[in-house]
Design the sequence.
């Protein structure tokens, strides 16, 4: 990392020497360089805005590479508030697309076959309509971790990155009071327990509007949500 930082500083220094000589101050005592300031206290200190047209590269372990992976790691997933047509350069929509390994080698080296694999191709995550969840890592926070499945062929299953899980409703109990007439003048009540997520048609007519508001019924169990596009860095 120190080599990377040193290379970046050297790159900035060369650019500044070429394009900003009039605004540069070099202190001979400590070798500090200042742009827009006469008293730099750091090795490189810039007062004002800086602009670079092009990619910044650095030498690391004898290999020249872009510094972008160190700023935003390849494989990072972010929510993007714009439409898919506005996804910035260097990012892909998480739509399960199949990519050629050799064309996206750096991304493949990070995510591998986790989201799907086809020999010479691999898939980016397909997060359309999905919520993301942290891997359980044997903590027991996801009691059904081992039953998770892959969405595409060759993808991960079980307690691993890339596995999927269907929506579900936790098993629970319903308590109810059943009133019945044993004789013409005798009224009794009895409390029973129903097991499971639903009830018997003869006892439960349907959702009840209670003190907590109108019951919303749909084809899935979900929390309030807002749509975004999930994108992945490559």
Sequence:
């Amino acid at each position: 990392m120190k080599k990377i930082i040193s290379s970046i500083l050297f790159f900035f220094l060369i650019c500044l020497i070429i394009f900003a000589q009039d605004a540069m101050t070099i202190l001979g005592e400590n070798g500090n360089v200042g742009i827009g300031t006469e008293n730099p206290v750091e090795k490189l200190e810039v007062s004002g805005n800086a602009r670079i047209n092009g990619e910044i590269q650095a030498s690391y372990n004898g290999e020249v590479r872009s510094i972008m992976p160190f700023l935003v790691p390849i494989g990072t997933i972010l929510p993007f508030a714009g439409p898919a047509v506005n996804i910035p350069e260097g990012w892909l929509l998480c739509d399960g697309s199949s990519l050629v390994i050799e064309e996206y080698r750096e991304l493949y080296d990070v995510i591998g076959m986790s989201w799907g694999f086809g020999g010479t191709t691999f898939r980016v995550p397909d997060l359309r309509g999905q919520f993301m969840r942290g891997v359980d890592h044997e903590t027991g926070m996801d009691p059904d971790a081992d039953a998770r499945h892959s969405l595409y062929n060759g993808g991960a299953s079980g307690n691993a990155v890339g596995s999927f899980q269907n929506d579900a409703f936790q098993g629970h109990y319903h308590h109810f009071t059943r009133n019945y007439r044993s004789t013409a003048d005798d009224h009794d009540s009895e409390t029973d327990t129903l097991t499971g997520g639903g009830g018997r048609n003869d006892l439960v007519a349907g959702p009840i509007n209670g003190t907590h508001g109108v019951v919303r019924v749909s084809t899935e169990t979900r929390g309030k949500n807002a749509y975004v596009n999930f994108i992945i860095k490559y």
Q: What stands out?
A: The chain has a mean pLDDT of 81. The radius of gyration is 30 Å. The chain has three domains: 2-67, 77-147, 169-206.
